[in-house]
Specification:
By secondary structure, this protein is α+β, with helices and mostly antiparallel strands. Residues 1-154 form the PRELI/MSF1 domain.
């Protein structure tokens, strides 16, 4: 397909013509190198062409095809004005190392303008414009010729195999790797969806084909079994985002199903998906959401009066959650429990939903990544529009939208009364457009007719209160007794308690105002461990030792503008008059940590005394995924300064007498790894004295 763009290409108007300068083919036809001289009509101002004295520019392009290694390398450089401007470009097509059905494409170029009649900046802009347009057009061109080949009936090119003489030679030589002969792929196997790798296995040996498992992330069967139908581009996005997480979030990588939810929520835009996924992972870690099902017991008021619960599954195998909102006393629940307790209960419901999706995936043998929610609005009235109740509902929607994207497969709203449009007007602006498309609303008894409930739920499991025969164990709700109401002060204290039950602390880091933590070590050979996330900006992490204690910590004046609440602070311990090397010393090399990275590590102390962990401002805080300023950054610059970073951290000291295991394999029991992860590695390791792992 690539060769078809020569000698000229109608899709590239500036590519006027090309001539072959030299050509080489190896005896076994595995190597084909061809060099061409290409004539280009550059889109440049007429005045510039007149000054330069040329109408066209010439490039030399060398294409090297290696059929044995299955690679195509393309090198190009300018011939015209080569003494004034040096342009080098390199492109390569290769087979993906983990999935031979994928083609990898890489492209790079360099431009060095020495002099150009005083028009250096103009030439640079022209070159960048041409290069950018070529990149955008590259995929379109290759797909055009691929389609052209398909129309001509060419859908498969046999893989290169060495001639018979070469095969005989390779069989007698111990220095060459034998090449497997080509195997014809039967049509039946292709229709059944077997990958080439599996077909080769079944053809060459009697061993049973190995089904895809979660350990083989690129296996076609694994993708079909656990992830669903994905285009090659979507698969590529998943692999790239997971690889980035592996590099920056050591040992705490969410499962592919969870990463996919965030990619789908942002239409497979990797940059946007990466940003919201990192924010969600930090949120889960800070509030220990991973442990909510095991450690948090809902208050009895919720168990008695929250009219919602899980009820079998829909026709697609999705877990079914039933919510009798019209029968629920939202005002009474908010008055008795507060907003935070309600939010935590909804989070536990979502966590249970994720668990049920995994179970149903195993039971039904196909990927199930979302659930169906059935909301019965019979009984909905103006009491449900109580302002604090609506405020709590909007807060819950905001948190769920941010941290559980693409988990709602379908929302069936039944028996919507006249007051429903008022509630919908208040709520709908906070719901994502993709989520809104999954809503089906039925007024009165319309759900019993064509296109109603029976289209989505089997008759046998329709709840009894909707006219079905299945007993539904969802609480009936009802009014919460006023004797259970609590004062505003009691609720406020309870809310703070709920969201401060975390081992992690938040800190603000400003330019010129690092955040520092003091750790006193009595016995040498103790182990200091740390686990922190860089939530915003780039920071430098340092560890210092001092024989004398610093002055009592003073909160920096900027700390009043804490980014997080509660717990965001900025503490400085090292006195301005202290000198490095005299009053204190550095015991670890500085570590630069980028926004979005998660860092775990340890340090084996050599001396008793005072150790200071320091997070210091490194560069302009910017979004890790875009050059555009974020709203948070703009607001921060108005309040204090744009030079602001944020970290969330946890530290622990393990005494030498309590330490178990070797110093080269330190594992902290408080690493806070996400339960969304598959098998994880240890939280940190130590080389001789310490090592920081990402």
């Amino acid at each position: 397909a690539y060769e078809r763009r020569f000698p000229t290409c109608p899709l590239i108007p500036m590519f006027v013509a090309s001539d072959t300068v030299s050509e080489y083919k190896s005896e076994d036809e595995s190597i084909h190198v061809i060099e061409r001289r290409c004539k280009l009509d550059i889109d440049a101002p007429r005045l510039l062409k007149k000054i330069a004295g040329v109408d066209y520019v010439y490039f030399v392009q060398k294409n090297s095809l290696n059929r044995r290694e299955r690679t195509l390398h393309i090198e190009a450089y300018n011939e015209t004005f080569s003494n004034r401007v040096i342009i080098n470009e390199h492109c390569s097509y290769t087979v993906h190392p983990d999935n031979e059905d994928w083609t990898c494409f890489e492209q790079s170029a360099s431009l060095d303008i020495k002099s150009f009649f005083g028009f250096e900046s103009t030439v640079e802009k022209i070159a960048m414009k041409q290069y950018t347009s070529n990149i955008k057009k590259g995929k379109e061109i290759i797909e055009y010729y691929l389609k052209q080949l398909e129309e001509e009936g060419i859908t498969f090119v046999p893989r290169w195999t060495p001639p018979v003489a070469c095969q005989l030679e390779s069989s007698t030589s111990h220095t060459r790797r034998p090449v497997s002969p080509a195997i014809t792929i039967p049509d039946s196997a292709t229709k059944e969806g077997l990958s080439n790798k599996e077909i080769l296995n079944t053809s060459s040996s009697p061993a049973e084909p190995t089904a895809g498992t979660p350990d083989d992330k690129l296996d076609a069967d694994y993708i079909k079994r656990y992830l669903g139908d994905l285009t090659p581009m979507q698969e590529s996005c998943l692999i790239r985002l997971r690889q980035w997480l592996q590099e920056t979030h050591k040992g705490k990588i969410p499962k592919d199903e969870h990463i996919l939810r965030f990619l789908r929520a942002r239409d497979f835009n990797i940059d946007k998906a990466r940003e919201i996924l990192c924010q969600s992972l930090t949120w889960r870690k800070q509030h220990q959401v991973d442990y909510i099902l095991d450690t948090w017991n809902p208050p009895q008021v919720l168990q008695d009066y929250y009219a919602g619960g899980w009820h079998h599954h829909d026709k697609d195998g999705r877990p079914l959650y039933v919510l009798r909102l019209g029968q629920m006393d939202t005002k009474g629940l908010v008055r008795a429990l507060g907003e935070e307790a309600l939010l935590r209960y909804v989070l536990s419901i979502n966590e249970e939903g994720l668990r049920r999706c995994e179970e149903n995936t195993k039971v039904f043998g196909r990927p199930i990544s979302s659930w169906t929610c059935l909301v019965d609005l019979e009984g909905l009235n103006m009491r449900h529009l109580w302002r604090p109740g609506v405020k709590a509902l909007l807060r819950i929607i905001e948190v769920v939208e941010a941290n559980y994207p693409e988990t709602l497969g379908r929302l069936l709203i039944l028996r919507a009364p006249r007051v429903f449009p008022v509630l919908w007007t208040l709520v709908s602006p906070f719901i994502d457009d993709n989520t809104r498309k999954k809503f089906l609303i039925y007024a009165g008894n319309d759900y019993q007719g064509p296109g109603g409930l029976l289209d989505y739920i089997d008759k046998e499991i329709i709840p009894d209160f909707l006219g079905g025969e299945c007993m539904c164990e969802v609480p009936e709700g009802g009014l919460v007794p006023k004797s259970l109401y609590r004062t505003a002060e009691e609720l406020e204290n309870e809310d703070i308690k709920l969201w401060t039950e975390t081992i992690y602390q938040s800190a603000s880091v400003f330019k010129g105002a690092p955040h520092e933590v003091l750790i006193q070590i009595v016995d040498a050979s103790s182990v200091i461990t740390w686990d922190f996330d860089v939530c915003k900006g780039d920071i430098v992490f340092n560890i210092f030792h001092s024989k004398r204690a610093p002055q009592p910590p003073k909160k920096d004046s900027l700390g009043a503008h804490s980014i997080t609440s509660p717990g965001g602070n900025n503490v400085q311990l090292i006195d301005k008059v202290w000198q490095l090397g005299r009053d204190y010393s550095m015991v670890e090399s500085p570590l630069i940590c980028k926004e979005g990275e998660s860092v775990q590590g340890s340090h084996v102390t050599r001396w008793p005394g005072f150790y200071i962990l320091q997070w210091k401002f490194h560069s302009m805080p910017a979004c890790a995924t875009t050059n555009l300023p974020r709203v948070d950054d703009v607001l921060a610059s108005l309040q204090v300064s744009s030079h602001k970073c944020k970290v969330m951290y946890y530290t622990e000291v393990i005494g030498s007498e309590d330490f178990r295991g070797s110093m080269t394999s330190l594992e902290s029991s408080h690493s806070g790894f996400s339960q969304l992860s598959a098998a994880t590695t240890s939280s940190s390791q130590s080389h001789s004295s310490s090592m920081i792992s990402r």
